[in-house]
Amino acid sequence: MSQSLRERVTRELDRLKQEGLYITPPVLEAPQEAVTRVAGREVINLASNNYLGLANHPHLKKRAREYLERWGVGSGAVRTIAGTFTYHEEFEKRLAAFKGTASALVLQSGFTANQGVLGALLQPGDLVFSDELNHASIIDGLRLTKATRHVFRHGDVAHLEELLAANDTDGLKMIVTDGVFSMDGDVAPLDRIVPLAEKYGALVYVDDAHGSGVLGELGRGTVHHFGFHENPNVIQVATLSKAWASIGGYAAGASELRELLINRARPFLFSTSHPPAVVGALMGALELIQREPERIERLWENTRYFKRELAGLGFDTMGSQTPITPVLFGEAPAAFEASRMLLERGVFAVGIGFPTVPRGKARIRNIVTASHTRDQLDRVLEAYAEVGRKLGVTG
Questions:
Q1: Per the residue annotation, which of 242, 274, 307, 372 is the catalytic one?
Q2: CATH topology of domain 75-274
């Protein structure tokens, strides 16, 4: 590393430390479960996106081993050369059937799915209308395109209509939004966005990372929750790393969309395809999601209980509507201190500060899962009550 670069990096790290924004990632010492181990301590885990409790499930591990033994360790190539196997296409057909769409295509991650799909669809002269709180992968994906971008205030459909009415193009118009917002836990108002898109001749693009496996019948997602899954002008993109407990991303929609992405999505074209064990685990997740709907029911029972009790303690959960339950602490040092104090009390819940969330909106982001027991949640609530009093956040 050159001296000038070393100095720049050191200055940036010092600045982060001075502002209380320096991050040291926690290291898990046991599998991703409702109870895990961090820093040598057994803790109740509220930090993961393991919504349905599948990350260490025996059925997924069994299916992964089956695919590993039959197909080997790696796929050996990108999909368009020699890296497409029958197991890839079988999973994609089953995923499309689950989503109620004509087709689905799996990409390497949810992040690269946004880069690939937006990059393949958008051209110079197109207009994009993007929610201000959209995920970083959407923001970066849009930056890689030459479309003109307009940002509307979070969830503000009236502001969105103002922008749609004031801007027109001979190209495409696309409204881009998260289905469930990852830091606030609220749901995009698709019931108003989709009709508005039809009024102004726009497409709707939904990143459903935190809605897939959580919302809608059998966890089919936010678009299904609002009944727009058969609308050909709604494009669904999501990850397979949260409720699905593995890794990857996907796009679901018209058959022509799949064909275009195979030919134009750069992450698909230039990254090695998923190895057999990953697809085996994903197939196992799909089987369990369809076979055990009670998992989603438990997830929502736990979610409602946890939110209600936190509110009763006096915490601000920021209007969350989903299992993502933020607890507002204001500034990053306060959120990080609360996280440290909770860990001392056997609760693993991570503080989130700028730049992930705006300054002054630092929080602890909690996610209850289908696997948490009522006793575990009560122990978490006891710890929160004590921490809230000590930090002066609650009475």
A1: 242
A2: Aspartate Aminotransferase; domain 2 (3.40.640)
